[in-house]
Amino acid sequence: MNEFINLFNYTFFRNAVVASLLTSVLAAMIGTYIVARKNVFISGGITHASFGGIGIAYYLGLNPFMGAAIFAVLTGTSIEWISEKGKMREDSAIAILWSLGMALGIIFVFLTPGYAPNLMSFLFGSILSVGISDIFMILTLTIFTALFFIVYYRPIIYTAFDPEFSRINALKVTFFRYAMAILVSLAIVVSIRIMGIILVLSLFTIPQATAMLFTHSFKKIIALSVLFGLIGSLAGLLVAYALNIPSGAAIIFVLTIQYLILKAVGALKILAKQSA
After folding, report:
1. What pLDDT, in 10s, does the model give residues 197-230?
2. CATH classification of 2-198 is 1.50.10.10, yes or no?
3. Domain limits of the chain?
4. Is the whole model's pTM more than 0.85, yes or no?
5. CA-based Rg of the chain, rounded to a whole angstrom?
């Protein structure tokens, strides 16, 4: 344990812990909204589609995360437009954009002159390589998202749970849906730096699923998701250090084990009450 505490002497580890805290807060808000929409896989579609932006940015010699952000926002808003206009089933649109983004990413990475870039950090994340600029970016988005939730809390909830009722009551459903699509997209992109494309979907669902074992209140789910996300992240970093395994995968593994243990404890309590 002392060895783990001594890790805080290193800048890269302190950055990883701060990034975990901020990402837990950001993912708690965005993930709870996604769960409330009952469309968890929209985050998976945006995540994988953003790989197309990474590939194109590499090909053009631009910042890959900037390309991912542009592609993610375009994907998120396109899904909302398709859903609103009813041009296609939402799950079909997600599947198409998911596949298209991955295909474009692979094609443009292959066409990039010179050596093929190392895509492991994009696919599986690299939390231990997070720098001050990454932390500032996550912090800025987390603060903006928190302020947006505080100011527009009720419209966000109403448009997430019942958009038709919201329209009847003259709420700007289209504005809030598109605004949240942009925030979801940007949150996913900054989280890719931490968890990678393959694992980031879990960050926006597992803590929320764990929180929902205890409450169905939107506010309480956000609060508990922050707690469970932070515990899972710190414990995952400890496991990664102890076993010398990738930190992103370790964090998701711990989050899953955390959910299963609490789920089992809840089930045992129910059985105990029934048998009493």
Report:
1. 777 888 889 999 999 999 988 889 999 999 999 9
2. no
3. 2-198
4. yes
5. 19
